[in-house]
Each structure stands twice: as C-alpha cells, then as structure tokens.
Amino acid sequence: MSEAKTLLQMAGANSAPAKLSDATVIIIDAQDEYVSGKLPLTGVDDALSQISKLLAAARSAGAPIVHVQQRGRPGGLFDPNGPMFKIVPQAAPLNGETLVEKPLPNAFAKTDLHDKLQAIGKKSLVIAGFMTHMCVSATARSAVDHGYAVTVASDAVATRDLPDPLGGPDLCAEHIHRTALAELADRFATIARVADIKA
Fold it and tell me: Which CATH number is 147's domain given?
C-alpha cells in the first residue's frame, strides 16, 4: 500500500466522485482521429465502451452532457472537412446535448464552455475522453481554476506512446496514462472508474 499522499488528501478534501445528479458530464474529443486516424490510442476501444456506459448513466440520471470536439486546420489533424473530425457513433451527441468546438487542448480556451456551464448551473464536472495527458488534463486543470470540482473517469480516458524528451526509449501509453491520472489526483481531480460514478 502506498505511503504517499496527495495534496487533496493532506487537505482533507472529500474523495468521493461526483454524483451524476449533481454534475455536468463532459466528453472530450471522442473523434475518429483517435480511432482510425493518425493518432490511434492504446486502449481506445475499451475507453469508448466506458464512455458509452457513462453517457447512458448520465442520460438516465438526467445529467446535462457537453460534447467537446477538437477542430484542427484543413488538411491536418482533426480536419473539420474530413472524416477524422467526426465524433464516433458510440459517443455521438443526442438532440439537445451541448456541443463545443475547441482549437486548443484546454476546452475552456477560446471557447464559450465556461458560459455554457454557468448557464447549466452545476459546480461539479465528470470528464472523460481523449487524451489523458493532453486535453483531459488541460481541461481538468482549467476547470479547477474556473471554480469547478472535477471527477475524471479513469477507464473512459486513454492516451498513446510518446517519445522520451531525454533521449531514452519511447514512454508507453499505460505509464503516461497512469502518471497523468496521478498528477490530476494530486490536486485537480477525483479519479474514479465509470462503475463508481453513481446517479
């Protein structure tokens, strides 16, 4: 058992995940680029299965849902005119669910996400989507700056291998994923599996 403690644990923060009845669910970048495009993710199919379960539970609980979609440049990654821009079917928005397009990893940057969340009126967020170390992390951190309590669904996020900037062998996706979640758990978010996020 770990002897290390997070800053949240040392502060005596509530470690329970958000309840769907009290939260807005945010699905980040569940797009084809991460499935069959130039950025295939390790474990993406399993994560999408969990996103589908999270969406079903959120809809059943009447929780508001916001879908965030990365909008790239024409001809590049997430080309808005190409097929890789599309949200995958198992995570697609239903009528009445909010859609926000973003140009940067942080879904609050250069978007109206905060305004939309303020209009919804809930102060807790449940975040899922892609990638763990990039857009999920950037959005969760910014959400805390905006005054929200954050839960990240650990089995509904995924990432990819990355090169070691210090010149070693590539860093595997599993280690990056776990490290990104550990960083978020230290100060920015409660980390919970989809099955543990209740209505």
Answer: 3.40.50.850
Total tally of structural domains belonging to the chain? 1
Residues 79, 110, 116, 135: which is the catalytic one? 135
Catalytic residue status for 102: yes
**Is 186 tagged catalytic?**
no
pLDDT digit string, tens, across residues 6-25: 999 999 999 999 999 999 99
Integer Cα distance of 155 and 136 in angstroms: 13
Q: What band does 2 get if pLDDT is binned at 50, 70 and 90?
A: confident
Q: Is 135 a catalytic residue?
A: yes
Q: Indicate the pTM of the whole model.
A: 0.97
Determine which one of 19, 29, 79, 186 is catalytic.
29
Q: Is residue 199 part of a domain?
A: no
With a CB cutoff of 8 Å and minimum separation 6, the contacts of 188 are: 140, 141, 143, 144, 150
Which structural domain, as residue segments, surrounds residue 46? 15-194
